[in-house]
Amino acid sequence: MITIPKGIYGITDSKSGKDKNIFQYVEEMLQGGIKVIQYREKYKPMGEKYQEALKLKKLIDKYNGIFIINDHVDLALLVDAHGVHLGQNDLPISQVRKLLGKNKIIGISTHSLEEGLKAQEDGADYIGVGPLFSTKTKDDVMDPIGLSYLEDALKKITIPKVAIGGIKEKHLELLKNLGVENLCLVSDIVGAPNTLEKVQNLIKIFNQ
After folding, report:
1. 147 DSSP 8-state letter
2. pLDDT for residue 16
3. pTM of the predicted model, to two decimals?
4. Can you give the pLDDT at residue 183?
């Protein structure tokens, strides 16, 4: 069974990347040491998502990375991704497990301890915890939840927990001191002038 490794969890985002080439910056993320890439493109047509996901799967396989598809279970199946990341309003984990099988990863975004514990009980392989801080990477993003749920999740939930939402380089020391082992920075990485250097620096800080 594949598991989410500790460290920085990468997410694609054309909004933050603006005119950057998705394959170039994803490769730089992988070269920099990121092991997990989630394909999250909210505003592209499905045909384009399919073609991009196919190419990304080959690229990520080259680096022995883990490829996760956001929301679309069908797309994850079509490109043989390693797993899928769900939202609270997506298909139930139990039904997605029937489609993907026991050897694929299922992650889900959670915003409260109740949702986190339910996700664990339902068989999620990891949870997203957030948004911790204000973020503009999605139009439908909720208000930040702060750190209290994260602190509870670190104590009471045993599956991997990915801290997410508005996280910047300045937050790394705080989160590391809380005991965070997995975290995601979207705009800070994708929007960086040099993604490779940014990732290398972030990993160095987080591993100190």
Report:
1. S
2. 86
3. 0.95
4. 98
Distance CA 204, CA 142 (A): 30
49 or 17, greater pLDDT: 49
CA angle 183, 186, 189 (to 5 degrees): 100
Q: How far is CA 151 from CA 1, 95, 107, 154, in A?
A: 27, 30, 19, 5
Query: Which residues, listed in sequence order, are joined to residue 162 by a DSSP beta bridge?
Result: 128, 182
Question: 110 pairs with which residues across the strands?
Answer: 129
Pick from 45, 28, 33: nearest CA to 8? 33
46's tokens: 């499905």
d(CA 66, CA 153): 24
Evaluate whether 106 touches 5 at the Cβ level (below 8 Å).
Answer: no
CA distance 128 to 110: 6
Sequence letter at residue 172: L
Local confidence band at 140 (pLDDT 50, 70, 90 cut-offs): low
Position 81: which residue type? A
Q: What is the pLDDT of residues 2-32, one digit of tens each?
A: 889 999 999 999 888 877 999 999 999 999 9
| CB-CB contact of 119 with 92 (8 Å) | no
Whether the pLDDT of residue 138 is over 70: the answer is no
